[in-house]
Structure formats: C-alpha cells, structure tokens
Amino acid sequence: MAEMKLLLEHSNDPEYATLKGYLAKGGYTGLGKALKMERQAVIDSVKASGLRGRGGAGFPAWIKWNGIEKEITKPHYMICNADEGEPGTFKDKELMENTPFLVIEGMTIGGYATQSKVGYIYIRGEFVDACRAMRKAIDEAYANGYLGKNILGSGVDFDLYIHTGAGSYECGEESALMSSLMGERGMPRLKFPHAPLPTVAGLWDCPTIINNVETYSCVPFILDRGGEWYATLGASTKNSRGTKIFSVSGHVNKPGNYEVEFGTTLMELLDLAGGMKGGMLKACVPGGSSVPIINAADCERAIIGYEEMAEVKSMVGSGGCMFLNEHTCIVSFIWRTAQFYANESCGKCTPCREGTKWMFQILDRIVRGKGQPGDAELLVDITKQIDGRSFCGLGDAAAWPVAGAIRVFPEEFEYFIKNGRSMVDSAESRAMAPKWAQPAYS
Amino acid sequence: MAVDEGHRTVSVTINGIEIEVPQGELIVESVKRLGLEIPVFCYHPRMKPVGMCRMCLVEIGFKQPDGSVRMMPKPQAGCTLPASEGMVVLTDSESVHRDRKGVLEFLLVNHPLDCPVCDRGGECPLQNNTLAYGPSTSRFIDLKRHLPKAYPLSQYVMLDLERCIQCGRCVRFTEEISGEHELAFRFRGASMQPSTFQLLDFESKFSGNVIEICPVGALTSAQYRFRARPWDLQTTPAVCTACSNGCNVWFDHRAGRFVRINGRINEGVNEEWTCDKGKFGHDYYNSTDRLRTPLVRKGDQFVEATWAEAYEEIVKGLESAGKDVAGLCGTRIANEGLFLFNRLFKQVLGSRSVDHRWTRTLGTSRVQTPIAGIEGKKGVLVFGSNPAEDLPIVFLRLRKAATRNGTQVTVVTPDVTEADAFATVASRIGQGDVLKVAQEIVDGQSELARKVADCLKEDGAIVTSDRVRNLPGGGEALRLLEDLAARCGAEFNCYPTGPNAMGAELLGVLPGDGGLDTWGILQGCCSGTIKALWLLDCDPTTVEGGDQALESAEFLVYQGVTRSEATAFANVVLPMAAPAEQDGTWTNCERRLQRMTQAIAAPGDSKPAWRIFSEVILRLQPSTPFFNPREIMKAIADADPRFLPGASDLPEEGAILSATTQAAMAGDGA
Predict the structure, then answer these.
(1) Which of B54, B73, B142 lies at the smallest CB-CB distance from A351?
(2) Domains and CATH numbers, chain B
C-alpha cells in the first residue's frame, strides 16, 4: 500500500485554502448532503465509517456525537482541539494552514448533527500561521453563508470562534483545554466515573463534543462519499478505518506529513519519507513523543493500526513518527523527552508533578556521566509509580517513553551509567546532547 | 453518619464487607462507616474534592450480572469517586499499599524534612501518613527544590514554599469557603506554588483557617511560629470571645500561658472555621498591660492593695454615694458575672442605672434565625452593616447559602462588603441615608424596594447588626425593617456584635424603670447626679464625652482584664480573669448558651468577675455568697426560665435559648 491522499490531496494547492478553490475541488458537498439528512443519519454515517479520534486516544468519534441528548435545549458546544503540542507531531498545523475549510466543514456537520450552535477552535498559541489561515477561512465562510445564521438557507445556525492557547502542552488534554477555554488555569478535570462525561457536562458545565483537527477533517469525506466507503479504507486492520496522517521526522531524507491508509506498514511509511539518512534504522517512535519507542526489528513488523501497533508494544498516538538512525544515543533522546514532560506537567497531581521532575533529574545525572548503579531500575520503578496513578494521561505519557526505552535498549542505559559516556559516540548524538554534557562523550 | 431516609442507597462491598451507603457518596466517606480510613491530603470534607494528591488511590471493581467482579485497570481516587450499585472497593490490598508508598515517596522527594523546626511537626498529616503508609527510606539522591522559606504572606500567615505539597487546600479555601479568591497556584509542574497575586499581602478576614487545613507546615502562624511543640501543648475546648458569633475553638496553652486558637467543630455555629479576629485577636491573655493586683488610689498614685483593702475602699465609696451609683459594662464577661453585676446594682445598691450598650442610639436586638438556619433561607437582605466585618461566621453561612443553595442575597449598605461578590443586588447608600432608604424600602415604590420585596417574598430573612445603630437614623431604620419583616413573613435579625451582648440583654443588664442608660449615666457623672460609677471591662474614654464623665465622677471603680485609658481615672482598680481563665457560660448572637471551662489560671491576684461581685455583695448585704458559677447559673435559671438549659449539663454544642419567657415556659426552642 502506498500513500493514500485524502485529506492532504490538495494540500499543496494554495487555492484550496480559499473558499473558491475549496468549492472547485468538491468542498462542502459533504455539508450539503448532511443538511439534507436526518441528524441521526449523519451520526449513523460517522458510525458506519468507523472513524476514531485522531488526537491520540483513538476513541470512536460517533459515540461522542451520539452522547449528546437528542431533544436538548441547554446550550452545548463543539470544540476542535487544535492545541497540537505533542513533540514530533505537526499534522494539525498543516491541515489548518493548507486545508482550513475541511476543519470548518467538519465542525459544521458536527454542529448540525448534534444541534449545537457554537464551536470553538482552541489553537496552540505558537501556531500563528495556522491561526491566521483559520481566521481567514472562517471570515470567508461567514461572508458566503457557510457559517453563522441560516447556513446555506437550511435554517441551521453555527458560529465558530478561535481561541489561542498560552503555551501549555497540558491544555491539549481535553478537560484542561475546556478549563483553559473558560479562562481557568489549564488543569485537567475529573473524568468519568468521577464526574459526568463531557457530552453531559463539559465546557461551562454544558454538553460538549471535543475532537481533534484531523478527526473533523475526515468528516466531510465521510458525508460526501458515505461512511461505508470510508470504512473500506484500512479494512485489512482489526478496527482502524480510513487514513491517518503521519508527521515523519528524524533521520529521514524527506521529513513531512504523509497520509496513509490504516494497514500500511511502518516501513512503507519510512519509504514514503525517502528512507533513512546517515545510517541504518535503529529505532522509531511511531506516534509522538509520548508513545513507547520500538527497535528496528519491531519496525519491520509494525503495521499502522490502533490494535496492530499495540502488538509491538507501542501506539499510533497522534502520528508523530520519529525515525532514529544507528548513531542516535537513546539515553540522550529520552533525556530530552523527559525534560519536556517535566517542563509541561501542570502540577496538579503528585505522581506527575514530582515523578516527571525526578525522572529528569536522574536522566540528567546519567547524561552528565554521574549515573549510579541501580538508576535504570529506579527509573523503571518511578514510571510504574506514575503510570495509571496520575490524574490525567499526561503522567502516563511521561512514563511510557522512559519505560519503553529502558525495556527496548537496556544495554545503552547500562553502558552510560557504568562508563559515564554514551555507547553511541557520534556527531549525531553529540548534536542531540546538551552543550554542557559534551565532556561526557569524549 | 446515619443513612438519610428518603435517599437512594446503593450496596457497596468494601474489603469484602457489603454495606448500604447513599448513592453518590464519596468512597472516602463510605469507608468511614466501617471504621476504615483512606489516607488523604488534598481532600477536605467541606470542600469540593479534586483528586490532586493521589494519596487516596484504591482499587475499584464492579460486580457483573453473572456475579463475577470486573476490576478497573487503574487504581481510582477514593476522594472523587461516587459510590454506585455493585461497586467493589479494596483499600488494603498489596497494590494499594504500593501506590500509597509511591505517592509518599514522591511527596517527600522535594519536601525539606525539616520536621525538627517545623511548627506542624507532631500534628502533621504528612508525618502521620508517612508513618502509617510510607516508605522508611528514600531513593532520592539528587538536589531537592530550594525555594523561599518563611515568606510573610500577611502579618498572620507565613509561607514556606519548600514544605508545600501542592494539595491546593488553601487555594480552594479562599475560592470555595471564604470567597476572597486571594490564593492561587502560579507556575506549573514541580515549580507550582500557591501564592497571592504577585505575592502581595494575603488580605483576608479568614486567613487563619488555611494554616489549620494545610496538611504540612507550609502555612504557619506568624504568632505561633516556634513558640511550642504541639505535644507540649495542653488544649481545652473553649468558645471564642472575639465577637458575638461564639465560635467553638480549641484553646491551646502551655505552662499556664495562652498559645494559640484553633477551630473546633460545631455544625450549628462555625462548622470548623474561625475568623482572623477570633484566631489572632486574643493578645490580651499575655498582654503586658494585664492587671495583676487590686490598686487603690492614694493621692496622685495607685498603691497595690489586697482584695480586702480594695473592697473596703469600694464599700466606703459606694455607701457615701447612696443610690446615686451606676454601672457600665462591656460584653466580654460571662453570664454569671453579668448576672451578679446586675444584681449588685439593682437589688443591693438600689440603683436602676446599668447598661452594657455602646452604640450611638440604643435599642435591643432581635434574632429569629439561628446561624445555621441562614443556609435554608430563600432570600436574605443584608442591611446597613458588613457581615464579614461584624459577624464573620454569619457571613460564611450566608456565602454558603448563596453559593451552594442558591439563596438570593440583597445587600444594602453604606460600604462595599464582601457579600457583594455573591449578592444578586448590591446597593450602596449614603452613611446618613439609612433611615431614608429603609423608609423607601418599606414604602415599596422604588426599584430597590421591589428588589428587596422580591428577595423577601418567600422564606426570607433580614440580616443586620447593632452597628447600624451607630449610623444617623439607624435605630429608627431597624424598627421600620422589623415591621416590614413582620408584614412580609420574613425573619428579622439584628444580631448584637459584642461577645456576650446577647447574654447581657437576656439577663437584663439594661436600665430599669427610671434608670439611666449609657449616655444618661455618662451625662449624670458630669452633672453630678451619678456620684459613683463602676466600669466593668469597658472604656468610656473611647466614646464622646467619656473623658469628661470619668473625670467628674466622684468615685470610680475600674474592673478589667487589662489596663486601659479609663484606668487612670479610677479610685479603685480590680484585676479580672480573662474568659478562658474561669468557668462560665456565654450566650452567642443566636442565643446559644455555651459553657466554657477554665483552661489556665488567672495571672496574679485577678479573680473572675462573678467572684468579685459575690464578695462585694457579701460586704454590702449579709447573704449566702455564691461559691461557683454553676450555683449562679441555677440562680439565673430560677429567676429566668429561659436559662433553664444552663442549670443542668449543657450539651457539647450548647443550647439555643428561647426568645421569650413564655416560649421557654411552653418548652418552645424558638
């Protein structure tokens, strides 16, 4: 299977980011069809497509949509999670910059299906270009009757607002995002069964649907060509349907966003990205920095799919696929990852707040050449004390890469701790290591 | 913790024991029914659960229809999980213990462990939980976090950021209970710290509570800091005598000296909170101004005297004044003292001039709603006075009513009040307009009057305090509102603000027929109609014309806890025991009679007020003296059936006295 361009088909065409260009390429036929359908039929269509959340968790989108009370009078909201902060992932940025109308159309369809009149796009604050592109597209949609009151004369109202984040990875967590959107501190909230689901009490305690940019972008195609057609994509996998955009980076010749059908192998994705650069494949982080790393042997047998990826003890995640060549020092790589999570922990719960910092302190010590016997075991223990014990998924996300790396490359950690320097002494690993740590490599 | 009738219950299995609990009850509370405990840090029963500290992680499962149990893959926070049918809870499994160890190890990673010099040491939940559930060693060898220690957040509260475990109790207290929103978290991750905005002063009327709810020594009291180890303290249940709310407190003392006040639970009064005036405002106990021995004036100076000499002087002075004697008192005196003070003047000396009131216009209070009753009101009108200032605990109830029960609150006051934040209507009036506005409200024509009428239309109450009488036209305004309340079926409450002002009123420490009131007595001193004046723990120099009156009085007795401006004018000065230095009963603003037992000895020769009066009466009129406050309470109850509950053992939470004698005779509590 090769590249399967659905969402990204016209992403290189600047015209596609204008309403005229979008309409010329068949845009808004999905919404047109949806508006002629019963609301429930729209949801059923999404159900038939087997669309699962593209933000990382892979939760079936239709269940969220169906969870909104049918005869609802309370205000309720659609939220688009565009706080793309996962290191290695940059697909939503491209979607918003190059195909903004897909997002708008997808959200409008969702708004029609669930009778919600207001949508918010929560965009990561650093994404200035994406934000400008969305703003432009939304303005154009309003001007031409694709947003606002009485969309396309159907009597359906839908307003769309942009809100930019202030620089917190945690705000990509859906409940923290809602808190942030409400002007509160970006901290996660209680979840089911501790509190009602967002579809019952989310933003401002009103029913809320929150999906990823990519998820919404899939919806116009599902409505246009039918859920059954969409479900034929990725049919070779257990339960993953459609296409998935992977943001391929690392030691590859052509880094970038590549859209593939579920069921494609990881090696095919690597080929799409022009193959390895500077050396043999050593490891891959397939779904963004929070998913466990896999070694070359597992890369060979990894198939892209939510369940399939679990077989190699990793995840599809948000699709931030980083390929690392043989000259990469895994310890330094994990050092950098751990630093990110220690910085981004919101501080709400003890395991994540204290655990992420402690893990970074230990890794920092190891990278400085001051590792102590037992450090690797201690790190594993700490990840066990965080994983599943933290308040939200960020704790798990911080623990998995460390636990995964030690599981897959124990010898590299052992070597670094014992000898005070990396097993892989190379220009690449030096470049990745912090400046002050250079002596440790000599 | 009995299961409420009418509530749906669910069956939950905790550690293999099946029990019925109300649906939705938090698991952390449910386990208490079995005498079990889930350790917590961030959870506080009076605040919304947040599940931050993860100390309460337990294993949760659900009974399946086929009888098997499906356990949830991850441990769950017991403090946020509501009980539901068929829930299975394990609080004692190996994995639960491992999780607790893990959380404690994390918490101690950055905790400075400076327990030897920490005020909290010995009464610290972090110490206790670590002892019970924690690891005995730490695997942490890296650098601990270093942050400012002993940062003064306010004159009362010190912040030690190194000790903080980021549980958010203090932050939530200012958000949920006091409503001042003074504290918030800043920064994130391991650097997250509670702070005021830009570390400005923690301006709050309730800041002392955060010290008590802090599970570590991060927030400490500037007053109590380094003054004692908790295990060296003795504690006595007491009633706060800072204002009329009568909060239940723990009076902590060491080696016979007062050390600190902590909140004590009384669901009817203060729940468990204290205000800053009550927590930090008892410096008179250890004041250098304390009177220790009786003093008698000899020419220009005071000479230390024995009690016998002082009494002799007093008897001489009073006898030469004949019936032209008067008594003025403050309100920080127990019922027993006030009763004998009243008896001394009205029965023994034959004067009718006694008073305890100090407001510009004088009146009597009227209280229909008990403090806890405010929670159930549909609408409350706050008129004239700022409840957070005058009646702090009434204010907390009012806030609870408004924020949790949706009580409609209308505020009509001259000054900005804390209640404005949750009031549906907050109206500012001029200091001199109180009467005009009250009239307007009663007339019912204006916009404000309509809003007030709407607020009081069903199950309403008016909350005001005797401070309103200090405003021009205040007394008349209160009378108008009282009539209005009676007409629209609302309850009227003009709460007194003096600590035992309600007691003084019920005991009739008021001018008798033809007697002079406070202002009349002071004038009488100037004009010579009052020859001898007895000041019982009050200082008329603070009011207009007071100095002149004291100067003019021929014979002046000053009886008090500490020296004051008035002491200088006295012929005889008598040292009196402070509230916690004697047994006695106190009546709070809702007529709740509460007993206080002696915690520490009175310094020097000071004696409780009741004993002083008992001894003076004995010298003036041969009679059987009272030997202890209980006998006096019996005498009070004999004279006034409203005080009957005080004659026997009072319940721990006190007893609310009837408003009228008739009601007391009929056994009606209201």
Answers:
(1) B54
(2) 9-105 (3.10.20.740), 108-221 (3.30.70.20), 295-360+502-656 (3.40.50.740), 366-495 (3.40.228.10)
